[in-house]
Amino acid sequence: MLNTLSGRFLILTIIFVMLAEVLIFVPSIARFREDFLLSRLERAQIASLALLADDMIDPGLEEELLRNAGVFNVVLRRNEARQLMLSSPMPQPVHQTYDLRAATAMTLIRDAVARLADPEPRVIRVIGNPVREAGLLIEVSMETAPLRAAMIDYGLRILVLSAVISVITAALLFLAVRAILVKPIKRVVAQMQRYAADPEDSRRIITPTAGVVELREAEEALKSLETQLTAALKQKERLAQLGGAVAKISHDLRNILTSAQLFTDRIEMSEDPAVQRLAPKLVNSITRAVNLCETTLAFGKAEEPEPRLSRVILAELVGDVVASERLAVGEADVSFAEDVPAGLTILADPEQLYRVLFNLVRNARQAITGSGQGGEIAVAAYEDDSHWIITVTDTGPGLPPKAQEHLFTAFQGGARKGGSGLGLAISAELVRGHGGKLLLEYTGPGGTAFTIRLPRGESGAGWSEGAEAVNGVAAEKS
């Protein structure tokens, strides 16, 4: 009950109504005290008028008049003359005097609270104006015990009435809140659970029906979100099916092209001039087709595995990449430069980082050889307080505008004719898996530069506690 919206609203309503009744109770009890004292003054005035009618009143009758008025004595001022009209012995001296003629609301409240807080029986003097202008003032002496008892009785009745009003009000508000808010919210929650069970079923998208403006807006927003999510899931499913088909086709086509590549090796040995002229083009075409199939298969995986972080001596890794590319240069005029500190050790997945650097260096080499002119490829690295920075620069012709526009987008960011753009897309994904960034610093006729920024320590966004534990073990072994 306490954990539900309606239950908490019920309890808060009772509390707030009771607080409101308490704020009403204090001035009410002060008003009751004032009325009580005024009634005593009125009774005393009536008793004194009986004495004015007959100066020779019997002492027994005088005592009865005072007893009925609830006072000990009555002083009435008429025509500027103060006259003790009725009197009887008082059990104790007067404790305090209260003048009701000009009492403010705060004064009445203060005196009422003080009377409730004082349980001792006292004798007080009360001064007021006679009713119907029967004199200048009237003054009585009386006990406080009957006054306090009447005030307590009145207060208890007010509190009981307040409690009943609070419960009834809270119950009515509870039912209203359940009908207006809780039930519509539960309906929305139930619909969300129903939609979550099968988000691709468009029939489960919510239909806004709430009459409350705020709830209607929430339902409209939820409908828009569910509509977009359903469409995205359907598109993802279609793309997944298409990707699966492409992967299967690429796998079979790669096998076919690999066999064809073996035959082209023999064709190149032919002495026929026409064959010698066309064979290199055929070999290049088949090689590009095989490379496209392999990169498509690599990119077609659901996602790259999480990086297995370990301490890597960067100079050795860069040396392996450069050595591999030197073999692929052949007769082309391409030189390589390495500016990596020998002792620079970084925290990364060596296989994934090798793939990133290999893709960047290979792209640079292909750009230079494709231009028909010589050039240089340089790999440099350094570190600052928060990152390891690796740069790959070349003096090639630069990236074409289309490649720059879709630089890290698969199948759209190819920098050369026949290229798929998968190398940069895969590289960017691998760097992001390390919590870093792959950036294009500049490109143009003078060359191109890429920068890899890998975070040091715990700043990597993608590093979990498990990866940190692996890192610690790798660090101990290195």
UniProtKB/TrEMBL annotation:
Q: Which PROSITE patterns match?
A: HIS_KIN
Stretches assigned to the Histidine kinase domain: 248-458
Per UniProt, the keywords (alphabetical) are: ATP-binding, Coiled coil, Kinase, Membrane, Nucleotide-binding, Phosphoprotein, Transferase, Transmembrane, Transmembrane helix, Two-component regulatory system
User: Can you state which reaction this protein catalyses?
Assistant: ATP + protein L-histidine = ADP + protein N-phospho-L-histidine
Residues forming coiled coils: 215-242
Task: Please name the SMART domains in this protein's record.
Answer: HATPase_c, HisKA
Q: Which CDD domains match?
A: HATPase
Q: Does the keyword Kinase apply?
A: yes
Q: What is its EC number?
A: 2.7.13.3
Which Pfam families does the entry link to? Answer: HATPase_c, HisKA
Q: Which InterPro entries match?
A: HATPase_C_sf, HATPase_dom, His_kinase_dom, HisK_dim/P_dom, HisK_dim/P_sf, Sig_transdc_His_kin-like_C
Q: Which residues cross the membrane?
A: 6-30, 158-181
Q: Which GO terms describe its molecular function?
A: ATP binding; phosphorelay sensor kinase activity
Matching PANTHER family, A to Z? PEROXIDE STRESS-ACTIVATED HISTIDINE KINASE MAK3, SENSOR HISTIDINE KINASE
Protein name per UniProt = histidine kinase
Question: From what organism does this protein derive?
Answer: Aquicoccus porphyridii
- Lineage per the UniProt record: Bacteria, Pseudomonadati, Pseudomonadota, Alphaproteobacteria, Rhodobacterales
